[in-house]
Design goal:
The protein has about 425 residues and is of the alpha/beta class. It is built from 19 helices and 10 strands. The strands form 2 sheets. An 8-stranded parallel sheet has the order 1-2-3-5-7-8-9-10. Strand 7, helix 14 and strand 8 form a beta-alpha-beta unit. The mean pLDDT is about 95.
Length: about 425
């Protein structure tokens, strides 16, 4: 056996902490009945869209429509799939076909096998997939999906699966389009009457504390989808003036960028809450889901002042900051409170993830690397397929380091375990044996 094979065989057996998912658990799985709609769930849909030049949005939407017959979809889907099937997103789909459906090649006839299997999916099989993948714990950003069940979660009546560790999502608490609705929702969840900025902040702090009491382990902010992730230190008077406009008029709305002072002020206050409650913070950086996004606003380099100001907060920077690798390495090397999270990255750009792991090993402490996060919704077979690719990428990176005589094989094994389990276990204070 060569070095890669030896390392990969050992990495396959390692326990994993999945650093980022959107899985609700029981009752969350999409109830697909039509095979094409099920297979293009998640990120591969973006690659199919990128290949769909000359295809209208309504024509593409038929592929995701459960009510459109498979035979009607097949010609368009087949054309786009053949143009897309070698991307990493598509490889996840291929692995799902192979591992979950027992299908080696995506053909029209094979789709009938998918259709038959869809009806056999159960809650029991859902969790079997996660267990079989070796996932010991999963950090999930799902609280915003609870809706009317959120108060039940806060009271302990609604329980998530045992392996789930909740992250408190922040963007809805400092929305880029600010109005009275956010204030009223926080008031409802905390059963308080909010009449001032101080009252709102007290209520948000109480809300986060309630989440922590129910097992939440950190905060997460994905505002990069809506705005540049550069947050100014705003005088309190400026933020309070905007807050008072909203609270005194139910019809008042602050759009973007008019409402930026209030948004920035609240973000910095929430980082102080993270400090006071000793909670790590996950931040979206780099690539975004979907197409036609502007990635420049998401470069982690914009966060330098935040990392400098909030020195007592541990930050977990997402997605390898793709495609800004050098900027991320600098932040990890320069700031003791920064860790690099490869969630989603292994299927955005596998070679980039390998390069990041190799270069990070040589440039910054290996204790600052969190090696995997699936970043899928309630389709655990896709997260498991993603993890298979991630393990391969980690083995490739470590093989290069061993062959280059930077480390030996046992050190490589130790690094893999640190990246996949030990580092996130410590960083998020999960206290899981492994």
């Amino acid at each position: 056996m060569n070095i890669f094979s030896r390392l990969y065989d050992r990495i396959k057996e390692m326990p994993v902490i999945d650093c980022h998912e959107h899985m609700q658990g029981l009752g969350g799985r999409p109830n697909y009945k039509e095979p094409i709609a099920s297979l293009i769930h998640g990120y591969v849909s973006s690659d199919l869209q990128a290949a769909a030049f000359g295809v209208t949005e309504s024509e593409f939407a038929t592929l995701q429509d459960e009510n459109v017959a498979t035979d009607k979809k097949w010609p368009l889907f087949d054309r786009l799939w053949r143009a897309t099937e070698h991307t990493a997103y598509a490889r996840v789909t291929k692995l799902v076909l192979k591992n979950h459906y027992g299908i080696d090649k995506l053909t029209r006839d094979a789709l009938e096998g998918v259709r038959a299997k869809l009806s056999e999916q159960t809650d029991e099989s859902y969790f079997e997939i996660i267990d079989s993948a070796g996932i010991e714990a999963m950090l999930v950003d799902v609280l915003g999906w609870l809706g009317d069940d959120f108060p039940k979660y806060l009271s302990g009546e609604f329980r998530f699966p045992e392996k789930w560790r909740l992250m408190v999502s922040l963007p809805s608490l400092h929305p880029t389009v600010a109005n009275r609705g956010t204030i009223d929702e926080v008031a409802r969840l905390t059963d308080t009457s909010i009449t001032s900025l101080d009252g709102f902040l007290d209520a948000v702090f109480a809300l986060i504390k309630q989440c922590v009491a129910q097992g939440a382990v950190g905060l997460k902010d994905q505002s990069a989808y809506q705005r540049v992730i550069s947050y100014d230190l705003v005088p309190r008077a400026d933020a309070e003036r905007q807050f008072n406009r909203i609270i005194s008029n139910a019809n008042e709305t602050l759009g973007w960028p008019e409402g930026r002072p209030l948004n920035d002020f609240l973000f910095h206050r929430y980082m102080e809450f993270a400090r006071d409650l000793d909670l790590p913070v996950q931040l979206h950086t780099g690539h975004m889901a979907g197409i036609r996004n502007r990635v420049g606003k998401t470069n982690a380099a914009h966060l330098s002042s935040v990392l400098e100001v909030h020195r007592d907060v541990n930050f977990d920077l997402f997605h390898g900051n793709w495609p800004y690798l050098g900027d991320l390495l600098f932040l990890g090397k320069n700031y003791p409170n920064v860790s690099l999270d490869l969630c989603w990255l292994h299927i955005i750009d596998p070679d980039y993830s390998v390069e990041l792991l190799e270069r990070a090993t040589k440039t910054l402490p290996h204790s600052k690397i969190h090696g995997f996060g699936g970043d899928y919704g309630d389709v655990p077979e896709y997260a498991a397929a993603h993890l298979e690719i991630a393990r391969e990428n980690i083995a490739v990176a470590l093989t290069g380091l061993v062959e280059g005589r930077w480390i030996d094989e046992e050190e490589a094994v130790d690094l893999a375990k640190s990246w996949l389990f030990d580092n996130p276990n410590r960083f998020f204070k999960l206290g899981i044996g492994g």
